Amino acid sequence: MTDTVEIVEVGPRDGWQGIGPFIPTPTKIDFLRRLVGAGLRRIEIGSFVSASALPQMRDTPELLAACKEIPDIDPQVLVPSERRGREAAEAGAPRLGFVLSVTESHNRNNVRRSPAESAEDYARLLAAIPPAVMIRLNLATAFDCPFEGRVAADRTLALLDRLVPVRPEAEICLCDTTGRADPAQVGDLFRAARARFPQARTWAFHAHDTYGLGLANVHAAHGAGVRIFDASFAGLGGCPFAPGATGNVATEDLAWMFGRMGIATGIDLAALIPVARDGAALPGGLPGGRVRDALSANPESCSAAGLT
């Protein structure tokens, strides 16, 4: 395998945040250990948000502290504001994912402010945290909005015009929040963004599989030069502020697709499938994906494909 991609595991944040029954913290830590054991390194372990808004995320500081005892894990936490970003940095988070939405309606529904106000918050956060803290910029509704529908590329690019110069070296992730993007749209937007912002060298894609196009959209982003992809084990997840947008693209599905294409992910599918099965069985979870069930029914397929 001469080509490689990085898969960022977001299940412990995106996959769990909408689950009602609280998952015990020791159970979460055990999942983190097992995910690392399957070859995943960068894991979005949770978010620093209001516990009343997302009760499942209330133990993120404890999970962050536990990561110090998990060799090889690279923990990432999601933050929606300067205040929460400061809290995460003070708690020792080595990597922050700052999120804002392209569309006014989704951003106000999500963080109670306009995209312009969130952009100002982003700049203030960067000025406040230590330079060693890694930053990812997540643009939600970059392709489609649950309230406004399809988002024109010009709107996403215009927001990037404001955000990229603040820290050009930040990783930029364009997010298909609703799962309604299509491969042509994904490929076109990434090509346009990479051409317009040559100073931004690291791009990522966050796909949902709500309408069954998650893998196709990832493939399109890869064809446009993207090499970092978010995924959730067992296909768990969805945005609680985007009605119907359940189902992140499954980590095991991405690992299978890229492996069949001869592209290395560093993931041991034979080790990941049992973790995904247990994730799919969590009470209140909404699992997705196909490879988990296929390989559970025929485990030899994994070895035969050379993906162990």
TrEMBL record:
The keyword Metal-binding applies. One of its GO terms (biological process) is ketone body biosynthetic process. Residues 5-273 form the Pyruvate carboxyltransferase domain. One of its GO terms (molecular function) is hydroxymethylglutaryl-CoA lyase activity. Pfam families: HMGL-like (PF00682). The keyword Metal-binding applies. It comes from the Bacteria. Keywords: Lyase, Metal-binding. Belongs to the HMG-CoA lyase family. This is Hydroxymethylglutaryl-CoA lyase.
